[in-house]
Every structure is written in C-alpha cells, then in structure tokens.
Specification:
About 25% of the residues lie in helices and about 25% in strands. The chain is built from seven helices and 16 strands. The chain binds fe (ii) ion. Fe (ii) ion binds next to loops.
Length: about 280
C-alpha cells in the first residue's frame, strides 16, 4: 500500500503503475494541488481522472502546467483552433464511422515524440467518444523492464544509442498518409541512449519502442534484431496496465518511463475520438 499522503482520493490501478486520482480539473487548480498531481505523476507514471467535462482550452491549460506543449509536425490533425491539440477520430463530417483508422502507428508499442531530440514528457488524452469494444490503451513500465534485465544484458546495452525515426516507424506499419518532404526535412532521425536515466526520479529505464530503428555503430540488421528482442522482452503482463476507456476520462502518462499502444476497434461501425496533447520534456540522457 502506498503510505504517502495525498490531498485527493488515490486508487492504484495495478501494484506497479497507474493510479486514479479523484480530482475535478474544471475548477482551476491551485499550485499546491497541481504539485501533488505532479508528484503522483512521477510516482505512478500513469494517471487516470474520472469522467468530467474538460473543454479543449482547459485541457491545453492543464497541459501547460506540466511544461511546454508540443505543436505536432503533422498539422492535418490540429483541432479546435488549438495547434497544441491533436485530434484522432474515425468519424466523418456527418459524425459517422468512416472505416478508416486515424493513426495505425499507435497500435504498436511506442513512446511519444522519441523521434525528436527533445522527447515527450507527459501525454494528456481526453476521451470524447469511445467504442463499445476495443480501442483500449495499454501501458508498460520501462523502469521495471530495465530492472529485470540480467547483468549481461545491462552491460551489453548500457552505452548503446538507438536512432529514432518517425518516417521509419510510420512507413513500416502502414503506407497511409506518409510524411511530406517538408515534414521529413523538419524531423530528421535522432539518436538517444537505449537506457536513459529519468531526469526527475533518477531511476534508469529502457527507452526504445517502435520509433527506434537501428543502433549507432552496429550493422543495421544486427541493431534491428537487438531492438526487436529488447522491445519484446520489455513488454510483460505484470508490468502493464490495460485501460478500457469510459467517455470523458482524462489520462496522463510519463513517456520517459512508459511505453503505450492502442488496441484495434471496429472503425467501420464504431466511433473513437480522442484529443491529445504532448508536453515536451528534455533530450534523454
Ligand atoms: Fe502515442
């Protein structure tokens, strides 16, 4: 049991990661309350807020408390007049399911923004419309993934760097809606340590996921195999939390120490609409 004192009810979602905080975010948060939320964010890695009305402006304002909010390079997704908000929807102009998944890349385990020099800190998602089945979000604890590697693994990967590349991950998973030349030039591949130290908790974690393409200084195929092996080793049921959404919930997670993915749903017959923003963190070290 968590012995810490919190100024709001806290319900852990698994023994390892995730907690539901019963906080109404619509009232404006004083500094003390926000600091407690942030402490819970570092402690639990994934925060769930129960269903509530959270208009786009409030979501962006809440995100700004965490840090600088990213304006995504793929500007076709900007929503509600806020360039910081990224809407993923399968509904057409008439509000009917289009049969097209808005971003198949989210179905593979990844960490947001790892294809940038400054990677994602918090991702903050509000569920506007959720399907009756599927469309879940799964999370996996990358502190735990690193800690359970044996000493040989830790010695082998301790100094490695991986190149992360949005163009690679997107084209590999699906050929749809590829990056434009301009978007590609704006986001060249970057390299990050395979094992990073969380800048606020000081704990080590594995930092790979689906955007990681190859290992610096290693033959391409060998690096690919190593990344695939580590990504498979990293994701374990007892390190994971699988979230089945109710509409109007808000979830916040720490991309520095968590991988996540979405599960498929029937995009021809059911709607799924989320509003997302990502707060920028720092260059991993
Ligand atoms: Fe994501």
């Amino acid at each position: 049991m968590d012995a810490e004192a919190w100024p709001f009810p806290v319900r852990p979602l698994t023994p390892r990661l995730g907690a539901e905080l019963s906080v109404d975010l619509g009232d404006g948060l004083d500094e003390g309350l926000f600091r407690a939320i942030y402490r819970a964010f570092l402690r639990f890695q994934v925060l769930l807020f129960p269903p509530q009305d959270l208009p786009p402006g409030r979501q962006v304002a809440f995100a700004r408390r965490f840090g600088e909010v990213q304006v995504h390079v793929m500007n076709q997704y900007h929503a509600d007049g806020f360039p910081e908000l990224y809407r993923l929807s399968n509904l057409d102009q008439n509000g009917r399911p289009s049969g097209r998944h808005p971003d198949k890349g989210t179905l593979a385990w990844h960490t947001d923004g790892s294809w940038q020099r400054v990677t994602g800190q918090a991702t903050i998602i509000y569920g506007e419309v959720m399907p009756g089945r599927g469309g879940e979000t799964h999370f996996c604890d990358m502190y735990g993934a690193y800690e359970r590697l044996d000493e040989r693994w830790k010695a082998r990967i301790g100094d490695l760097r991986a190149v992360h590349n949005l163009d690679f991950s997107r084209n590999r998973r699906h050929g749809e809606d590829p990056l434009t030349e301009e978007q590609r030039r704006a986001r060249p591949p970057v390299d990050h340590p395979v094992v990073r130290t969380h800048p606020e908790t000081g704990r080590k974690c594995l930092f790979l996921g689906d955007h990681a393409e190859y290992i610096v200084g290693m033959p391409y195929a060998e690096g690919r195999a190593l990344i695939e092996e580590l990504n498979a080793l990293a994701v374990q049921p007892d390190l994971s939390y699988e979230h089945r959404w109710r509409t109007r919930e808000l979830i916040v997670w720490d991309n520095r120490c968590v991988l996540h993915r979405a599960t498929p749903f029937d995009e021809a017959n059911e709607g799924r609409v989320i509003r997302r923003c990502t707060v920028l963190g720092e260059a991993p070290a």
